[in-house]
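Notes from the pairing session

We agreed to fold both candidates in a single pass and log them together. This is the raw record for the first candidate, unedited. Please don't reformat it; downstream parsing expects exactly this layout.

Candidate A
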Amino acid sequence: MLSADSPPRFKLYYWPIPFRGCFVSYLFAYRDVPLLVESGFETNADLKNRPPDEQDVPYMGPPMLHDLESGRALSQMPAIVLYVAPGLDLMPSDPFEVASCMKVLMDCNDVLMEICRYNGSSMWTRDEWKSFRSTRLPRWMRIFEESLQRGFIGQAAPSFADIGVYALFGNMTRCLPQVEPDLRQHAPGIHALCRKIGAEPSLARYVAQQEQEYGKLYCGGQIEQSIRKMLELDAKAGSPG
């Protein structure tokens, strides 16, 4: 089991924003276990743009994790989480509970893909954003709320899925506070769970350090500008979406 006194075993490569990388880094921060992080834009761009046969693991983009002990590497956020969670005591023992937690984490990944328009492949139009914020995002929030009610998350012993939900909605409402009333309305239990997870001192310190470094930067690039523009227009209209 990894501990706060252990030398760093893993190195995470991700852009200089929390967005998807924080689903990994928050696990370590929650347990107060050291993690090396390479967030340099040029370094990450160089690694991801190399030919697949020259990469430590063939991948399209970060996050990417190096196991410094074994020399192995992994990409894809859910795969990385699945690999490191047991050593952080954030993995359930029952196979169905593991699968249920992974289902929640994959839901988180889907929400990220939707809000950033599939990694910024297109920008938000007003009509599409209105539909997303008034219909699809509330449904996602209710799905997470029901997952909480059914015990997939929120148990006495936290799992990687609990930290994942915080990485999704805790980070979203921190960086885009206009969305917090939506979460309170459609998923009050998830809102409370995020506050509980985020209150863990070691994680709270880490998030504060990230905010000092990145400010309220969310997903970065033109797509973040598009999201913020939509939220600004929502505020001017006086209603969400």
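Candidate B (folded immediately after A)
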Amino acid sequence: MSTAGVGPLTDDGRELLAAADRLSDLHPGYRFEIIGGVVTVAPLRDGPHANALTTVMIALFEAGLGDEETEVLQGIGLWLPGGPEDYAIPDLALVDADFDDHLIEYNCYDPAVFRLVLEVTSSNYNLDLRHKVAAYAEAKIPVYVILDRKHDRVHVLTEPLGSSYDRHEVYAPGQQAPLPASIGAEVSLDVAELIQAGRAKPRTPDA
């Protein structure tokens, strides 16, 4: 989900975590993360956002994922190496089935158990397309998928190298977006179907 920066509230990571907690209490339903030492906030999901996630989950389940070896989860915490207390909460993740044995802290898990993360963009899409690319690459997340609802595209980033990904493929409606077999199954996402699932219906003014 796209995030907006709240700002570096302090140089002390522990105080950042406390600040994120306070903000979460003040704004129920919003998602706060710490990326690059900056507290960010993601807005409440709209219905099409959730529908797009369901569409991806169905594709993963139909390919046999979410079995004895993997789990398909929404909103699971991912501990990031980019800062002393950095963490993210991807919209969707494919993780090893034993992920619960790899809890680090703050309900966040070792990035080593993540096979894939996916974000569906909201209003501030640049953070998913830029800052989270660096954060997830540094965490060595093997596959990062972005559903860019503003530009009607699906991005598939693989082969993390430093603070970026060596491969970045972009797919348009009418194409299939293949995911690497390293996630545990052969999966291709129907871009048009995903874009349609994530698109809000036009609203007509009340008569």
